[in-house]
Specification:
The chain is mainly α. It has 30 helices and no strands.
Length: about 650
């Protein structure tokens, strides 16, 4: 007698023929029915797969036209709820159903691309809650656990569409928060899944596997989660994994490769594709005060100081690319600096952090950081170079705020480079035509716009001045670059104000010789004879830090007088004007107080008289002339400003016995 299992084997062996059961019509009929049902079920399954793939393809093709359309978004959201409910109630198991479930999840993610478009802020909370409830059951499913495909590479990657779905949800909620949605409870299992997935994927990266696609999805989900979910919820879940430790180990293993543009100033090199993603995760953690503390104590800056990127920075070999390119060493170095800046902003005890972590990191990268500040006002101005300059200045400013008890060591390292940067800014602002020609476009579109703007400026009958370069309606590309230069100037001045202890010098009469600024041109040979050449004296006068500050203030004052009241950069212009005057006044007071007694009558400083005195006391300039320029900057009682500038004017006139 033939068993049922044997008959199934026969059916499986002869799928294209009808099995023949001799001498038993009843068994023949059963066999025929079994093979018909098998073929029917398989055909329906095949049709189900084909229909799902076709609908998925349709959604992807029409997403371009439905983007930003409110009605389409609502319709797709309702369809997504239906699909999510179907997926959540699927109880048929097996490898074939797993593949189908993965395809259905891909369809759901395609629907949500339109349904959760960040441009649409009309998403209804009840519908979104229904979607999250369905997603919750999908994630916690025992039939199709999403983490299984990460741990077993031979099964369909069901985790990938789920990570994509979570990324879209977190992105939408970050753009349009729903306070009454109860995300913490609805997505608790999803949070656990994302953390486990991140830990697993980072472990795979350490083992040398190519996980760039998965890593991008999970990092995107993590970054969105930090903005949407309560910090204590996701931070507790993250503490149960080794996510930060694995990410730091990836950083320390970083090796730089490739060289497409060798040159005298360095080379354009690249890093593995996972490095920018890991740094993006660190940036998201550093922006949150609680997770920033955990990241800091984990030794993030120690890892940043010990890798191939840090080695290139130590030698000043990182070159900003002219156009945006993926995976460049400059992009990763810039991301590291952004993390340092975020940590300085987020942590409460920044003084201890600066001493224990930031200072060793700065020692490693100081060559590259100072290189970022070497813009003379004449060289090419690329977007990537501006990015690096601004974040470097932000870090120095953060350090200047954290340091207390005196500027020793820090000012001596970065004071002169900051003065030289201000000198370059002065040159640029005093020569607007040359400034506009230094701008290097970062894309073809920007190149076209910049060419049109330069042609329009060339046709101006009234000539080109800095006010024209700040017109955002007529020259938006140029105006954006000039505004960034103004912001960099403001940050450099604020840093120097902190490091030179301007307020104690002005309000309390503190006079510290080590707070006197000097420029590179002021580094004359202390054993040389007194300079007598008039041209050299003029050059030295122009390079005097106080003269640079006075000139910057005068340029800003002129801009404030001539620019429209509606100009968006007026607050920046006024801040630079005010800071320049404050810093110049404090420098003059300090230099005047510690000059040799015999030189205070005529206020003339003779360079070379004292070999052991800091050459910055003279800086090649005549103190009397500098005071006169400062008085011109501050104005008289009738034309001068009130507030801080008015107070400075009274201090200067009273100190140097000039009647108002």
């Amino acid at each position: 007698m033939v068993s049922g299992l044997t008959w199934l084997e026969i059916v499986a062996d002869v799928p294209d023929s009808t099995p023949n059961v001799p001498f038993d019509p009843r068994k023949q009929s059963t066999a025929n029915l079994a093979i018909d049902m098998f073929n029917l079920n398989w055909s329906m399954l095949d049709a189900d797969i084909a229909l799902t793939k076709s609908f998925h393809s349709l959604i992807e093709r029409i997403s371009y036209w439905t983007q930003g359309d409110g009605l389409s978004a609502t319709a797709c959201l309702k369809a997504s709820i239906t699909v999510a409910e179907l997926l959540a109630t699927e109880d048929r198991g097996g490898d074939v159903m797993l593949a189908i479930q993965a395809e259905r999840l891909s369809l759901l993610s395609a629907l949500l691309e339109t349904a959760l478009d960040t441009e649409n802020d009309q998403t209804e909370t009840p519908l979104l809650r229904e979607l999250l409830e369905g997603l919750k059951r999908i994630v916690e499913s025992s039939s199709f656990p999403p983490i299984s495909s990460l741990r077993h590479a031979d099964i369909p990657a069901i985790h990938r569409p789920i990570l994509r779905i979570l990324f879209l949800i977190f992105q939408s909620l970050a753009a349009h928060p729903k306070a009454d949605l109860g995300v913490d409870n609805l997505l608790e299992d999803a949070i656990v899944f994302v953390m486990e997935a991140a830990d697993t994927i980072l472990g795979n990266v350490l083992r040398g596997q190519d996980c760039a696609g998965d890593l991008g999805l999970v990092i995107g989900s993590l970054c969105g989660m930090t903005k949407v979910v309560s910090t204590h919820v996701w931070l507790d879940k993250m503490s149960e994994t080794n996510l930060i430790g694995r990410s730091l180990e990836i950083i320390t293993r970083t090796k730089v490769f490739g060289s497409t543009t060798p040159g005298p100033n360095g080379q354009l090199s690249f890093v593995p594709s996972q490095i920018p993603l890991v740094l993006l995760l660190h940036l998201a953690l550093a922006a949150n005060p609680l997770s920033a503390e955990k990241l800091a104590v984990s030794g993030v800056l120690s890892a940043y100081s010990d890798n191939g990127i840090a080695l290139a920075a130590e030698n000043g070999q990182i070159v900003p690319p002219i156009e945006t390119a993926p995976y460049t060493i400059h992009g990763s170095w810039y991301s590291m600096l952004l993390v340092v800046k975020a940590l300085l902003s987020s942590l409460q005890d920044t003084h201890s952090f600066v001493r224990s972590d930031v200072t060793p990191f700065i020692r490693v990268g100081i060559e590259q950081m100072l290189k970022a500040l070497t813009w003379t006002g004449e060289g090419p101005m690329t977007t990537s170079a501006l990015d690096e300059m601004q974040v470097t200045l932000d870090i120095f400013y953060g350090i200047s705020q954290a340091v207390t008890g005196g500027p020793d060591g820090i000012l001596s390292s970065i004071g002169t480079p900051l003065v030289e940067l201000l000198r370059g800014m002065r040159e640029a602002f005093e020569h607007p035509l040359e400034l506009s020609e230094t701008i290097v476009p970062s894309s073809e579109e920007e190149h076209h716009s910049l060419s049109e703007e330069l042609d329009a400026l060339a046709d101006r009958q009234a000539g080109i001045d800095l006010v024209a370069l700040l017109d955002q309606t007529k020259v938006p590309v140029i105006a954006a670059r000039v505004e960034r230069l103004l912001r960099s100037t403001m940050t450099a001045l604020m840093t120097l104000v902190n490091l030179t202890r301007v307020w104690p010098a002005l309000k309390e009469g503190e006079r510290l010789e080590q707070t006197i600024l000097q420029s590179e041109v002021s580094f004359w040979d202390q054993h040389s004879v007194v300079i007598a050449n008039t041209q050299d004296e003029t050059v030295s006068m122009q390079s005097d830090p106080v003269a640079i500050l006075n000139d910057l203030g005068i340029v800003m004052s002129s801009l404030l007088d001539r620019s429209p009241a509606t100009t968006s950069v007026r607050p920046i212009l006024y801040t630079i004007y005010e800071l320049s005057a404050m810093l110049s006044t404090a420098q003059i007071f300090t230099r005047h107080a510690i000059e040799p007694e015999e030189n205070q009558d005529d206020m003339d400083i003779k360079m070379g008289d004292e070999k052991n005195r800091r050459t910055s006391l003279g800086n090649g300039g005549n103190l009397k002339e500098l005071v006169g320029d400062l008085m011109t900057l501050l104005g008289d009682e009738e034309t001068g400003s009130e507030g801080v500038l008015g107070w400075l004017r009274k201090l200067v006139f009273r100190t140097f016995e000039q009647p108002e």
